Amino acid sequence: MRLKSFVRRFIALVLWVSFGSAAVAAQNAPLNPAAYDHPVRLAMIGDSITFGSGTTAPGGRGGVQIPGATPAQQAAVAEMTTSTSELAAAVTQARTALQRVAVSDSADRPALQHATDLLAEAELKLALARAAALAPLQASPDRLGAAQLAALVQQNSPAPAPGPRGGFTLPNTPNSYPSQLAVMLGSKWELRNFGISGATLLKKGDMPYWNQPAFQAALDFNPDVVVIMLGTNDSKPQNWKFSPEFVPDYKEMIARFAALPAHPKIWITRPMPAFSSAFAISEAVISGEAIPMIEQIARDTQVGLIDQYVAMKPHADLVPDGIHPNAEGAHFLAVTVYTTLTGQAAPSALR
Q1: Residues with Cβ within 8 Å of residue 299, at least 6 apart in sequence
Q2: Confidence band, pLDDT 50/70/90 cuts, at residue 189
Q3: Any residues with CB less than 8 A from the CB of 200 and at least 6 apart, and which?
Q4: Residue 208: beta bridge partners?
Q5: Contact 212, 256 (CB under 8 A)
Q6: β partners of residue 307
Q7: Is the pTM of this model over 0.85?
Q8: Is 342 exposed, middle or buried (0-12, 13-18, 19+ CB in 10 A)?
Q9: Domain boundaries, the chain
Q10: CATH no. for 33-69+166-350
Q11: Each residue of 28-79: pLDDT tens digit?
């Protein structure tokens, strides 16, 4: 009887492992764009590594990036930014003048009022010029949605003096890994980059992705495929103190996307290594705590898993500041996602 009981338990264990492996394999199975009657909508969710490669100097604003923007939208926003640059500079000068008056002689009420009026006038001129520049776009089918407009307003707000975060931002460049991935995937895919520099997965983090306009824009996009790479900024001490909430927060984000009408296929990602402690990011937390949690989340929710940690581990030389990959490093990230999504090697011309 003991032998039979042992045999039954052993068979049950083998079946459990087999079915579990089959479920994981099914989630990681490549997609066939031919199964869709439209270009496969792919939403890239992430932080600065998704948002763009290359850094600006501390306090720099970087490029204006609208979540999920089409090429026409991004071109119109870039043109608006260029055409109103002088008015934007005038706002900066007016703000500096106001700060100078406030610091030098805050008791001089007439001077303060005059400087405040000049700033308000400069801001009004800039707002009207930007609205006029975007009017043709907003009258077209490519018009910006509410979440995109909110992101535009947020990014075009005058930069405050550098604070604890140092004003560090990353522009979304043509060499960002989503941009390189879009080229690899070709016309059968519609990739939108919803990355936000500095974003955390944790709701109680210092910059929750949940609170960014990009999150709602990504949901509104109703993607067929979602790739999430968050967790790097969560490793900072001020964020990781909420680590018990990392798993439930991540599962909730997966559930939000899974409930969309398109019922997207979802992949989550083991973040790439941190090769330095810059920006207070912790490699020990990423590799020793966050990644095991992410692996468990993938098993529990039966979503796919992309391994950017192993992909980038040999390439510290492609991560100049130890955290953000350069264009060549971003290429390795793009190839890893491409191979996972398609089951094919990256096009030879792009490798």
Answers
A1: 20, 24
A2: very high
A3: 47, 206, 207, 208, 209, 230, 233, 234, 239
A4: 200
A5: no
A6: 270
A7: no
A8: middle
A9: 33-69+166-350, 80-138
A10: 3.40.50.1110
A11: 778 888 899 999 999 999 987 876 643 332 223 334 556 677 778 877 887 8
